[in-house]
Amino acid sequence: MRTYKIAAIPGDGIGTEVVSAGIEVLNALAMRDGNFEFSFDHFDWGGELYKKTGRMMPEDGRDQIRDHDAILFGSAGHPEIPDHITLWGLRLNICQPFDQYANVRPTRILPGIKSPLRGVTEKELDWVIIRENSEGEYAGVGGRVHQGSPLEAATDVAMFTRPGVERIIRFGFKLAQSRPAKHLTVVTKSNAQRHAMVMWDEIAAEVAKEFPGVTWDKMLVDAMTVRMVMQPESLDTIVATNLHADILSDLAAALAGSLGIAPTANLNPERNFPSMFEPIHGSAFDITGKGVANPIGTFWTAVMMCEHLGENDAANRLMKAVERVTADERFHTPDLGGKARTADVTAAVIDAIQGENA
Ligand code: NAD
Ligand code: K
Ligand code: MN
């Protein structure tokens, strides 16, 4: 029996609701498979811990999870604490030191779910967005002076390193190569941002030479939003900076039906540190505690975690179970226009996992 040690960090808001649903589903999946099991360690890091201790996670937090096979994360964000404190204190405090530099966000239209784009089909919207996850606009470099004076000034410096850009673009080409369309779109704002973004374009052209079988093109991020809406079928694999891809992937999730269905893998491809898996969405204060959070994003995230662990049969089984459930409108939560509750969707996915042909 293979045992995978998973660090579960639900965080705050609906993070706790969707992660506990995810754990139920993963345990059912392992039981159905019979060849492996999950051993979950639970970490109550987040806003409540911050209110007690002034820290979102303990000082030795990363040492506590360093040897786990993977991390299952919910959301960092608490209504009583400024967002930059919760984000930097927890999510970025894990992603960046663990060098999870490749943030992978697949988007497609699942069966039964309607895109807000008129007439768009499953074949026409099937993307993977790769977000640079270690530097750029979220490098944390900058400062603020003369606070409280009319001369107050502040900077957030987007810092890009050649190795950082090269590795994410190479990751993008490799991933594009593994997909049927074999096409990569490199997104920048290299007309206005004439230093780092021009370096991105140059590095893309260099790395492209290593991948003769992959076609590629360049887009400016503003025009990219238009192309995603008007010509979704022209896109396949997309690589962009930390900030740009953060924004584009929320748009992508909405175009595929809801922010509640979209998954993320924060990968350390070299496997020097554990990788972290989370739904794209945040704490969703407006629906916290109501039992209506859509858990599909977390289940799809769990699929990505199983793939990362090498449990491909289980990953396929879970994805099929998710698709069987989304195809049935009775299991649509309010974000998809339905009346189902988190628990209904979770039970339906577990049923589908246990089903005869699953
Ligand atoms: P959000 O993703 O929490 O919510 C945006 C909207 O989408 C809300 O209307 C919400 O109800 C809806 N939504 C999100 N997930 C849903 C789900 N699973 N089911 C149904 N509806 C869902 O974004 P926000 O409101 O900008 O942020 C709230 C808090 O979460 C902030 O503190 C923010 O910093 C934090 N946040 C954290 C992460 C993360 O940890 N990775 C990501 C995004 C936001
Ligand atoms: K999240
Ligand atoms: Mn985001």
TrEMBL record:
<comment type="pathway">
    <text>Carbohydrate acid metabolism; tartrate degradation; 2-hydroxy-3-oxosuccinate from meso-tartrate: step 1/1.</text>
</comment>
<dbReference type="GO" id="GO:0050319">
    <property type="term" value="F:tartrate decarboxylase activity"/>
</dbReference>
<protein>
    <recommendedName>
        <fullName>D-malate dehydrogenase [decarboxylating]</fullName>
        <ecNumber>1.1.1.83</ecNumber>
        <ecNumber>1.1.1.93</ecNumber>
        <ecNumber>4.1.1.73</ecNumber>
    </recommendedName>
</protein>
<comment type="function">
    <text>Has multiple catalytic activities. Apart from catalyzing the oxidation of (+)-tartrate to oxaloglycolate, also converts meso-tartrate to D-glycerate and catalyzes the oxidative decarboxylation of D-malate to pyruvate.</text>
</comment>
<keyword id="KW-0520">NAD</keyword>
<dbReference type="GO" id="GO:0009027">
    <property type="term" value="F:tartrate dehydrogenase activity"/>
</dbReference>
<keyword id="KW-0464">Manganese</keyword>
<dbReference type="InterPro" id="IPR011829">
    <property type="entry name" value="TTC_DH"/>
</dbReference>
<dbReference type="Pfam" id="PF00180">
    <property type="entry name" value="Iso_dh"/>
</dbReference>
<dbReference type="GO" id="GO:0051287">
    <property type="term" value="F:NAD binding"/>
</dbReference>
<keyword id="KW-0479">Metal-binding</keyword>
<comment type="similarity">
    <text>Belongs to the isocitrate and isopropylmalate dehydrogenases family.</text>
</comment>
<comment type="pathway">
    <text>Carbohydrate acid metabolism; tartrate degradation; D-glycerate from L-tartrate: step 1/1.</text>
</comment>
<dbReference type="InterPro" id="IPR019818">
    <property type="entry name" value="IsoCit/isopropylmalate_DH_CS"/>
</dbReference>
<keyword id="KW-0560">Oxidoreductase</keyword>
<dbReference type="InterPro" id="IPR024084">
    <property type="entry name" value="IsoPropMal-DH-like_dom"/>
</dbReference>
<feature type="domain" description="Isopropylmalate dehydrogenase-like">
    <location>
        <begin position="5"/>
        <end position="349"/>
    </location>
</feature>
<dbReference type="GO" id="GO:0000287">
    <property type="term" value="F:magnesium ion binding"/>
</dbReference>
<dbReference type="GO" id="GO:0046553">
    <property type="term" value="F:D-malate dehydrogenase (decarboxylating) (NAD+) activity"/>
</dbReference>
<dbReference type="InterPro" id="IPR050501">
    <property type="entry name" value="ICDH/IPMDH"/>
</dbReference>
